[in-house]
């Protein structure tokens, strides 16, 4: 571990699964996944922008999801790969706070956006005659703005508080990036009050959106069952099934990590959840 450039305020990122016996294989897999996710989302953005037939509410929201995923995976993986190849595992206090802020902003924005995408599918399937009225261009822009602004404001709160908790002893973060639970483990003060704030925020930004998404898809499923056209059923189910797969994976790991107390799960479980949410999910999207 090269720590020559460390200062008293630097953190040390131990990396992804430091106990893993074949780190070269692991980093190769991560690079391949990152390349696939970055390329796929970039091409999707380009196609939606170039093809006028795709200038619809569904594809506009999908382009926002691709944009979030591009930034989401890029705010963690390049730093991890750079640290691995250079051997320099330190990260400054400011860089750590910046990474945490962008990670939370993008994660929370994705939660909101996935909920809005479920609403879009609900209107398209259950109220098709009112679709153009309810999902007009201004509404789509307002939805995108709500996702980004809501995510940024909440992220600001959850960056300022953890980053100002006093650190006791080692400043080693058992993770491959600056994630909230990993930083909270370093604190030497009672964080129970903040854990309650985190729990309430998780209900607002994770549990409630997840319930709304489930409600939307329940109504969609009931509507699809009443359809006479097999082609219409298959089209509706195909459109919604991929979205539900990503929702289940993303919200499942996020609720596990953030709705439970920090000490209720191990750093290894945190890392597995982070890999699923920040690396695998952007590739699946």
From TrEMBL:
CDD domains in the cross-refs: 7tmA_OR2T-like
Molecular function, one GO term: G protein-coupled receptor activity
InterPro entries assigned: GPCR_Rhodpsn, GPCR_Rhodpsn_7TM, Olfact_rcpt
Residue span, G-protein coupled receptors family 1 profile domain: 40-285
Principal localisation: membrane
Keyword Cell membrane included in the entry's annotation: yes
Cellular component, GO annotation: plasma membrane
Membrane-traversing stretches: 25-47, 59-80, 100-119, 140-161, 199-224, 236-259
PROSITE patterns with a match to the protein in the record: G_PROTEIN_RECEP_F1_1 (PS00237), G_PROTEIN_RECEP_F1_2 (PS50262)
Hydrolase listed as a keyword: no
Topology term for the membrane: Multi-pass membrane protein
Family, similarity comment: Belongs to the G-protein coupled receptor 1 family.
Job description of the protein: Putative odorant or sperm cell receptor.
Protein's recorded name: Olfactory receptor
Organism lineage: Eukaryota, Metazoa, Chordata, Craniata, Vertebrata
